[in-house]
Design brief:
disordered N terminus; 123 residues; globular; four-stranded antiparallel β-sheet; alpha+beta; Alpha-Beta Plaits; Dimeric_a/b-barrel
Length: 123
């Protein structure tokens, strides 16, 4: 009986994860530049490589030259992919001399996002 219950709980957990849907990750950190067109030129190869990350759906690049901050909003297929990317990107930023990185993970409310014209799929 206990094994059946454990299997039932595992099935429920797997179903919950499957229903969870895409995971949004928000990064922000202090950044001294470049910004704008110079950032685009400097980061194009990085942007292309990010598209190859497992579970990656899309990214919105963020920058605020006045506040000397940058970051991004990412969408991943699942939490495992999101967490793996957080670890990888945080280590990469540290290699760039950025030691304080804020990363937050959010579930996405798909029905409300679609109403407000958000896209949850890769192009």
């Amino acid at each position: 009986m206990f094994v059946v219950t454990a299997v039932s709980l595992q099935a429920q957990a797997a179903e919950t994860v499957a229903k969870r849907g895409p995971i949004l990750v928000q990064f922000d950190f202090s950044y001294k530049g470049p910004f704008g067109k110079d950032m685009t030129a400097a980061m194009t190869d990085l942007a292309k490589s990010i598209t190859q990350e497992p579970g990656f759906i899309w990214k919105i690049w963020t920058e605020n030259e006045k506040a000397q901050e940058a970051g991004g909003i990412y969408l991943f297929e699942d939490e495992k992919s999101a967490q793996a990317y957080i670890n990888k990107h945080s280590a990469r930023l540290k290699m760039f001399g950025i030691n304080q990185v804020n990363a937050k993970v959010f579930d996405v409310n798909a029905p409300l996002t679609e109403i407000t014209k958000g896209t949850l799929r890769a192009r």
